[in-house]
Amino acid sequence: MQRLSPLDAMFLHQDSPTVPRQVASLAILEPGDQLLDYDRLIHVINERIDLVPRYRQIPRSVPGAFGTPVWLDDENFDISLHVRRSALPRPGTTDALHELVGRLIARRLDLDRPLWELYLIEGLEGGRVALLFKSHQALVDGSETVDLAQVLLEETAHDRDIPHEEWNPRSEPHAAELLVNTVSRNVRHPAEALRVTELNLGRLARKLPVIGSDGQTPSSVLSTQLSRHRRFASLAVSLSDLRRIREEHGGTVNDVILACIAGGIRGWMLTRAEPVTAKTSFRAMVPMSVVAKDGLPTSLGSQVRGHLLSLPVGESNPVVRLHQVSYALKDHRETGSAVAANKLASLPGFATSTFHAVGARVADAEAGRGHQIVITNVPGPQDALYLAGTAVAEVYPCIPLSGKRAVAIGVTSYHGQVFFGIVADRDAVPDVDVLAQCIEDALAELVVSVDDRRTRAPRGRQRPARS
Description:
This protein has helices at 6-14, 38-48, 94-106, 148-152, 175-188, 190-207, 239-249, 253-271, 318-328, 330-334, 341-345, 352-365, 432-455; strands at residues 2-3, 22-29, 57-60, 70-73, 83-87, 116-122, 129-136, 230-238, 282-290, 296-297, 303-311, 373-379, 386-387, 390-398, 407-414, 417-425. By secondary structure, it is of the alpha+beta class. The chain folds into two domains: 2-207, 2-Layer Sandwich (Chloramphenicol Acetyltransferase); 230-451, Chloramphenicol Acetyltransferase (2-Layer Sandwich), CATH 3.30.559.10. The radius of gyration is 23 Å and the shape is globular. It starts with a strand and ends in a 12-residue tail after the last helix. The relative contact order is 0.17. Keywords: Acyltransferase, Glycerol metabolism, Lipid biosynthesis, Lipid metabolism, Transferase.
């Protein structure tokens, strides 16, 4: 029997109608000769689910809460309860897709079944279909279990023979057996038992009335009491534009992305008549892959560590804003622990979705650092990926909201483009599409700065006199 880690147990316990603990990703597939339909999707998943056995397991509590829950086979596993169909009303616009995704990511997973769902969304404009992957934060840890998208998406459009064995669930142990096994483990691993005690005390503390400050982040446009509903917006930009800006102004593509988000938040606040001064900033939690040993480990060759960054939203000059972000992240690059973007992008399958899930775990594990927004940015493969022979055109991460954070942003580069997925509280941010547009406008400002510098006469040389 494998046990949930204390962190996984915390995610399971904190799952609520206003804070569903699940990470998601939206993939849009191109129309082709071989249309991906429901039956074909079920067939592909059945072929590959053996690679991720936890997708057929459920967490079961230990009597007396003497230990964290254990993973047990679901004796009544029914894949049709996890792979579902949905369709957009004609003409299947992007706005309609955003509305549907917002509703689906707000819907809690059934904790009495394996902790994942996959929606096949039909009826998009141009004959496309979309897939929405949803996994609980207690399920995908990047070490024992990877995201389902990483298993399903691959580099070839041709069918492959995947070894498949008939699955027979193991029967659930009796409560007495669970209890004896747990007590024995606690004796052998006292440090783990202490963490379980701390977890139980934390549960008790959350049930007690709070006196005075609740320790949450300061009130701001990005802070709210979360509702049960979400909004979603997406944005796709050219990776070549980001690289041009990097080459001209220095830093990394990640610096450019974060500067665009800072500029986008600034523009969005101005459209809402929110006060913006030169000192306005927001603390962003930016999980990053490192080779050091002080992050959350993954089975993908690196660990993920949270980096706290002050977004210079008050800076009006886009180039200065970029330099401020680059300078703030300079230490991370110079320590030698940073993992190169091309190394992450070359990992097999679509490892990007797993890294986003681990990044969201890191952000929640470090909630005590008082960040106001979570931003995950993971470079993905630049060659096309396929699912059951159908090419993937776009991929958008959906990072969960928690605490009082009203907005979370996930960014993925793939096949020459960079895709932003923006999740927001429905009541607090009814204009999430405006935020997406403002991020695009902030990028356009930086593109103009590059074009202006290239057309400007070099310093120290005079323009030729007109005849």
